[in-house]
């Protein structure tokens, strides 16, 4: 592993080639974090290929990675514009990386649409059913008064509150006659029952409609079921996906200016940069795409490093258990020495 072995403080590890491993691909792309269209278009193609394959064992087909979160903004903007679902399951609390994910508090617009579509077998499959009180609360909350009979909204909200209040006792299950009694007419009921989400959004309060723009575009491009399924594109920083894997990984080679300047002065910081991109490239199982630098700050020879990894798969030779313990003890001792030196300098 020529590229990563340049780290002067790296513990030497013996590797051997895996004879049966598939030979992956390394491709240099013109896309950059400021102009990500090349990456995004190909990522979408990879997702379609994965869907056509319909593998028995689910996996992540695509990762798009950068060293800093701000470098993903244009990529995310383009994915949203194209109605492509994406996520970062390793950082579920990052709302910008998980726009369709559930909230710890509150309900997302995507959840309101999937609650509306609870009756649709094409969306929920065997889990489809008639709405329950919780579903009703989710999808009726943003509706305007035009969707209800006069005075019905207040009565419905009171019934929902009572049904969801454990101390109030259990109410009978929600039935079609209840919903029909509150909604304006049979047309509204039938179109909601059929998960006509565009019609539903048109009856929501004006101030609430903007929040449905992205989940509605995902449904337009991929069907409502895409709001229930796990997104097939993962976006995030390299650090955020450590330990993860995808078939195809797209990497922007830029680093922050501060990190670049420190790497020029401090060999340890340079080693950190190498390790960072080593992690990025080793997330892939089939191919890695290296983008173009959009700034003056980035890692050179990144394609060389990727080729070294992908064209010859390696695995660490099995260590003697005693030798492994000795190595780990030595690594921890070195780490303690570093921390002690840093605290003294501070």
Description:
The chain is of the alpha/beta class and 346 residues long. The protein contains 15 helices and seven strands. It has helices at 37-53, 73-81, 109-116, 121-124, 133-140, 152-164, 176-182, 186-193, 197-202, 206-209, 213-222, 257-265, 267-281, 302-310, 321-345, and strands spanning 15-17, 25-28, 62-66, 233-237, 246-251, 284-290, 314-316. The strands form two sheets. Strands 2-6-5-3-4 form a five-stranded parallel sheet, with helices on both faces. Residues 15-21 and 309-317 have low confidence and may be disordered.
Summary?
This protein folds into 2 domains: 14-100 and 231-335, Rossmann fold (3-Layer(aba) Sandwich); 109-227, no CATH class. The chain contains 15 helices and 7 strands.
The percent of residues in helical segments reads 40-55%
Strand order of the largest sheet: 2-6-5-3-4
Gyration radius (Cα, Å) is 26 Å
Multimeric status of the protein: single chain
- In CATH terms, what is the fold-level topology of the largest domain? Rossmann fold
- Overall geometry comes to elongated
Proportion of residues in β-strands: 5-15%
Mean pLDDT: 84
Q: What count of domains describes the coordinates?
A: 2
CATH architecture of the largest domain: 3-Layer(aba) Sandwich
Biggest pleated-sheet summary? 5 strands, parallel
Separation, N- and C-terminal Cα atoms: 35 Å
Which class of the largest domain in CATH terms?
Alpha Beta
The number of E-state strands comes to 7
Number of helices: 15
